[in-house]
Amino acid sequence: MAEELAIDFNGEPLHLLADRAVYWPRRNSLLLADLHLGKGDRFREAGLALPSGGSRLDLERLQRLLLQTGAASVYLLGDVLHGREHGTAWREAWLDWRARHATLRIVALTGNHDRWLARAELAIELAGAQLVQPPLLLSHTPLPERTGVVCGHLHPVVKLPGLPRRWPAFVIGARQLLLPAFSQFTGGLEWAVDGAEQLIVCNGEQLIALPPGNSAGRQG
């Protein structure tokens, strides 16, 4: 079971989940960003020798979080897709998963990779680029001038001293909660907190709160 960490963001209780998502108790909802369905399919089409089944594994992780939290709805904060809407393995995996969760409400925001989302027929609600759900504002991209923003897009990661790989992380600021990419098949932006942010590393099972200034700069 993924570890949970209760926080207060913009006056609203939220639970960070170690498997890269947020549970919103008052709305009994899961929030996650950057699912990137079909990314592996697209890379294999380009000739890269990658294992198949990445989207199916991500959906199995989502299933476990639904069982853990009992959430009745899911908000996908953009970059739902990373490929064509028809004739690919990811779509078969999604439709099979969706049929087994027919009563689950799924609301999707559009991200920069979602140009096929509106015509993909995935049995989800489309909410545009932003969605106001007081006291929160859900968005794919960060909105530095707004308050209470929950977003994705940047795929924040952190390199911990003594460990060989980078780990996804939540970034909590005064105005913005930035989610890690939910898909395990993504790159990331190495992040350094600026003193006004809290960085929470997640490894799928545990959450680790880092002190300010832990990492050594933002890198693409």
Provide keyphrases for this structure:
220 residues, alpha/beta, nine-stranded mixed beta sheet, seven-stranded mixed beta sheet, 16 strands, 31% strand, globular
Characterization of the model:
Strands 8, 9, 10, 11, 12, 13, 14, 15 and 16 form a nine-stranded mixed beta sheet that branches. A seven-stranded mixed beta sheet has the order 1-2-3-4-5-6-7, covered by helices on one side. The chain is globular and about 45 Å long. By secondary structure, the protein is of the alpha/beta class. The protein has helices spanning 39-45, 54-69, 89-99, and strands at residues 4-9, 12-17, 21-24, 29-32, 73-77, 105-109, 125-126, 130-133, 136-139, 149-151, 156-159, 166-172, 176-178, 189-190, 198-202, 207-210. Helix 2 (54-69) runs parallel beside helix 3. The longest helix has 16 residues, at 54-69. Mean pLDDT is 86; it is low at 46-51 and 215-220. The protein is built from three helices and 16 strands.
List the helices and strands and how they pair.
Layout: E1 4-9, E2 12-17, E3 21-24, E4 29-32, H1 39-45, H2 54-69, E5 73-77, H3 89-99, E6 105-109, E7 125-126, E8 130-133, E9 136-139, E10 149-151, E11 156-159, E12 166-172, E13 176-178, E14 189-190, E15 198-202, E16 207-210
Parallel strand pairs: 4-5, 5-6, 6-7, 9-10, 10-13, 11-14
Antiparallel strand pairs: 1-2, 2-3, 3-4, 8-9, 11-12, 12-13, 12-15, 15-16
Helix pairs in contact: 2-3
Q: Would you summarize the structure shown here?
A:
By secondary structure, the protein is α/β, with parallel strands linked by helices. It is built from three helices and 16 strands. The strands form two sheets. Strands 8, 9, 10, 11, 12, 13, 14, 15 and 16 form a nine-stranded mixed sheet that branches. Strands 1-2-3-4-5-6-7 form a seven-stranded mixed sheet, with helices on one face.
